[in-house]
Specification:
The chain is an alpha+beta fold. The chain is built from 4 helices and 5 strands. The chain folds into 2 domains: 71 residues, no CATH class; 29 residues, no CATH class.
Length: 103
């Protein structure tokens, strides 16, 4: 699952060997730390997602649910920080291309 929140981009997948755990990954350490400030974040310089943490499924789900409850904006693009705008707009452009291709 990809999550593009106003303050971070996360990739969340099932842990390969621990069924009750999820692996939360990101290209930026701060993105994980904003959601889980006390999480132990590992750095793997050769991995496609350089930063990652392992969390119990319930803890990850609860924090994502909390982020949904905290939504206070009526448009996503203006809510994104200026230093991330270019990245989010590139993703949006790609989604628009997909939308056009599937009509």
């Amino acid at each position: 699952m990809y999550i593009f929140a106003k303050n971070g981009i996360l990739s969340i997948v099932a842990h390969r060997t621990k069924p009750d755990m999820l692996m939360v990954r990101s290209v930026a350490r701060a993105d994980i730390a904003r959601f889980w400030p006390t999480a132990k974040i590992l750095e793997m310089s050769e991995a496609d997602y350089r930063f990652r943490t392992t969390l119990p499924r319930q803890a990850a789900a609860a924090r994502i649910a909390q982020a949904v409850q905290e939504i206070d904006y009526d448009k996503v693009k203006p809510s994104v920080s200026k230093d991330r705008g270019h990245t989010y707009f590139a993703v949006w452009d790609t989604m628009m291309a997909l939308q056009s291709a599937t009509q």
